Amino acid sequence: MAEERIQKLKGFREFLPGEKTARNKVFKKLRDVAEKYGFRDIGTPSLEPMDLFLVKSGEELVNQTYSFEDKGGRKVTLIPEETPTRARMVKEHKELSKPVKWFSESKFWRYESTQKGRLREFFQFNYDIFGEESVEADAEVLAVASDFLETLGLDEVAELRINDRKMLEGILGAYGISDTEEVLKVVDDKEKMTRKEFRNELEDIGLTEENSRVVDEVTELRGSFENVLPKLENLVPDYEESQKAFKRLVELKQNLGAYGVLDNCVIDLSIIRGLAYYTGLVFEIFDTEGEMRALCGGGRYDDLVEVFGGEETPAVGFAVGDAVLELLMKREGLWPEEKVSTDVYVLTVSESVKKEGLELSQKLRDTGLSVETDICGRNFGNQMSYANSINAEKLVIVGERDLSSGCVTVKDMVSGEEEKVDLEEFTEYFSG
What CATH number labels 11-157+288-340? Predict the structure, then answer.
């Protein structure tokens, strides 16, 4: 039968209760970090007009999306990323106080080849600041990124790699390399190639052998702010834009130091990110073993709101994908245990005490506890087995003999210890 052949689509996931519990714990930590810095939670549509993504990214991105014509004849797209949506929202809500500091936990869809850490349906946490062009805004976004690494226990195994594209373009321009967009596209894929392949690729787009060597050597520059900034000072040409970008990096170092996150940040001139969006600062988070794809990426996109017809609005932000995050946390033994938990299971010994069992369950729920009781007519042994399967911490045994004495038996499911609890002190016992 056809029903027997129906399976989950490739690149999509489903989460059983234990798996979802673990993810909820991680997601809560990401939300808590955002709220510490005053970022406000927003909700965004899952479906947008296709033109929203064509305006800046063009056909290349749309070809990787779930796009279709709806029943009203509109060309629409399941959102593959949230930055265009946020830019549209800022444009439409002119009453917003600046700076606008938003975060969200959203689901996205991309129709592309699946591989380790890359799925067709995935979650991202997005953090953005709109309406502020200062280095302080850049530093705060980077501090949030560093903070979530520390909160999840990943600060020793992952690092923020930072670059400024305007500065890099100025350096390359000083060597007579003018077609920087084509060059940067190649640089963006550098980590996937050998050095020989990288230089050959540059020569294929028209660079001389000498200029290919220059691009290779410049984009190999990576290290701490302390070590790299003096080298950059000698490389950055005396162009206004280039010098301005370099001075922002110097100022950024001071601000990152004030936030206490400088040690987890490095300068890496090979970091490029999307050429369609980013206008200066760009950064990514990688695991230090180099085993996985980027855990996070972001930067400045100062012209995006204006592209969508809004006022000039500088912006900086980043996104964290859940797929690579989960892989890295599991590799490091940091992913929460995937199991359900229940505060209390109320076991009713017989049908005659069902009413009392339900009443006691409701009293406990009213105190904020997670409580289950029998709804299947199970016997004593089967209820015990079920209580174990849901990892109940406490077991309340409701029986006729105890009730006639005005009490119930409470069992600690970890230690196995039991005690009688007076019904008049029942809720106080659990709230204490």
Answer: 3.30.930.10
